[in-house]
Amino acid sequence: MMQESGTEATNGTANQNSAAPSVEGHREVRSKSATLSSDITVSDLVNFQQQQALQVARQIILQQQQQSSAHKSPKNNDKQPAPQVHVHLSSSLRLPRQVSVQQLAFQQQLLQVQQLQQQHLLSLQRQGLLSIQPNQTLPLHSLTQGMIPAELQQLWKEVTNSHVKEENSAHNNGHRGLDLSSPSPVPPKNHNQHGSTNGQYISHSLKREGSTLDDHSPHSHPLYGHGVCKWPGCEAVFEDFQSFLKHLNNEHALDDRSTAQCRVQMQVVQQLELQLAKDKERLQAMMTHLHVKSTEPKPAPQPLNLVSNITLSKTAPEASPPLSLPQTPTTPTAPLTPLSQTHSVITPTSLHSVGPMRRRYSDKYNMPISPDIVQNKEFYMNAEVRPPFTYASLIRQAILETPEKQLTLNEIYNWFTRMFAYFRRNAATWKNAVRHNLSLHKCFVRVENVKGAVWTVDELEFQKRRPQKISGSPALVKNIHTTLGYGPALSAAFQASMAENNIPLYTTASIGSPTLNSLASAIREEMNGAMDHGNSNGSDSSPGRSPLPAMHHISVKEEPLDPEEHEGPLSLVTTANHSPDFDHNRDYEDDHGHEDML
DNA sequence: ATTAGGGTAAACATGT
DNA sequence: GACATGTTTACCCTAA
After folding, report:
1. What is the rounded average pLDDT of the residues A535-546?
2. Within 7 Å: CB of A478 and strand C?
3. Residue A523 and residue A352: Cα distance in Å, rounded?
4. Is position A420 within any domain?
5. In the prediction, which pLDDT does A579 show?
6. Position A436 in a domain
7. In this structure, is residue A166 part of a structural domain?
8. Which of A130, A280, A398, A427 could be joined to A415 by an S-S link, Cβ 3.0–4.6 Å?
């Protein structure tokens, strides 16, 4: 019969996802997210930074070597012929790699640098500013395993070797130094006559651990911590501060090596600062952008999954008002990256759709769907993720979204396909379920109309279901509570999602935080609503709304809440939500075979 | 172990 | 007869 169907533009793509909606879908999205520009940018930035540091360091070394070779006597080196000093850049590469102490030290410094960078990246991620390519776990890997160890280590070798040689020369001239060029490697742990390597290098320059170079108490020095000299590459241990000072003056006096190290350090710091500045700038731009609704056309809808595609209010052209922008300006957490490059508003329920959850959602899914649907509208529209709502809830939502509060069966179908990518497949299955629910639940009333029959919602009936569900709501309540505390339920779902996407654990915290915050906010909202209006919303989820266990203990057999109280949020939402544009989105048809499906 | 709610499948009826 | 719409039943699963 007259299907007003099918003009949905996105149909084509909708069916191409033969993969299971949940799991496979995630993978797909993951790979997509991997192409996010921010990933590349960050990676490039860091690489660039490294390269620049190398470049500068090399220059420094060259200069120094030129200088040293110009005025130092090669003969002073009893173990290494002078010429070696002059060929460092080229021939040193061919020299057998001797694991010098300084190399080790430098390696550790590199680790420190990497850690710092990682921290930086993590902080960016926490702010939702950085996205990690799921497939690469962490961009840092490429840094730490690629160029850094090789090139930087080589660089450091060059630095240290040249200095050592200089020092050796100098040593004979009254200075002291290490003969690293000696074929017999110095015991790795005796660098500078001391223990193992150290790092702290950058961490000190950046973190300063509360002090500055010129601001240190008698027993506090930026280069001295925990009894260890924190000069880059030095990890000398000292019993007391005085010893350290002595060491500092002797070992790290103003000489070429120290100067070079200092320059390298400066360069590193500059690069990090540069990167920080850039990231700050980016953050600013992002925040600005987010506060000024974008008018840009949204990218072609693609089936995405939770991770890369959670809703965006900004791009939603429809009426659905962004009930809540995820974050306040103070929380630059605007869910970005890994999770999505768009500001997502992941509401609690949406998380539940993550994973292979196939059948029935527990009572917790009876939460009012309006806010969730509205907030995650785009997400559901694009991601083949099963909405965490019962058919009854969805049907009701569909009906209430219309001005007339009534829909024909076919219109309900259309709403489903329009609003949820998930329902663009296996139509026979879910349509049957829709019909089944319409008939089964008394809350759905069939009304004969001029143009046939339409379905309406009997809110009272609908509400009646609530109390019953309340008995089952403890789950929801518990869920809410745990969620508020970033508890097991949520984090489990979230972590599962993360795991799904190969996102390292730490990202769960860093990335998740913002999102979780928004989740918590959403939930709080919901809870507030429940508290303030009882089973407000009247959405079918009311049972779930009972915010506290104590509350539903008494409600199992309570009579339905006053309808009045159900007005609130839901009404507003549903009313505001109605989007005319929907009329243009017809039919994502239709029986794309029953493929795999549920 | 039981119960209730929900999802899925399917048989069947009716109308177009 | 095919299809859409509706109703009903049965079974399964999950959570309480």
Report:
1. 32
2. yes
3. 13
4. yes
5. 34
6. yes
7. no
8. A398
Asked if the Cβ of residue A499 lies within 7 A of any atom of strand C, the reply is no
Q: Which of A8, A4, A2 is nearest to A423 (CA)?
A: A8
A475 touches strand C (CB under 7 A): yes
Residue A423 pLDDT exceeds 50: yes
Q: Compute the average pLDDT of residues A157-167.
A: 41
Mean pLDDT estimate for chain A? 48
> Can you read off the two tokens belonging to residue A24?
């496979």
Distance A52 CA to B1 C1' (A): 70
User: Do the domain assignments include residue A310?
Assistant: no
pLDDT at residue A253 is higher than 70: yes
pLDDT at A21 over 80: no
The residue type at A434: V
Question: Any atom of strand C under 7 A from CB of A447?
Answer: no
Q: At A453, which CATH number? A: 1.10.10.10
CA pair distance A29, A307, nearest whole angstrom: 7
Which strand B bases fall within 7 angstroms of a protein CB? 4-11, 15-16
Nucleotide lying nearest to A387, CA to C1' measure: B7
A363 CB neighbours strand B below 7 A: yes
Quickly state the pLDDT bin for A239 (edges 50, 70, 90): confident
Question: Which residue range is the domain that position A405 belongs to?
Answer: 366-465
Number of folded domains in chain A? Answer: 1
Q: Give per-residue pLDDT as tens, A44-62.
A: 433 444 444 445 444 544 4
Task: Please name the residue ranges forming H helices in A322-458.
Answer: 348-352, 369-375, 377-382, 391-400, 409-419, 427-440
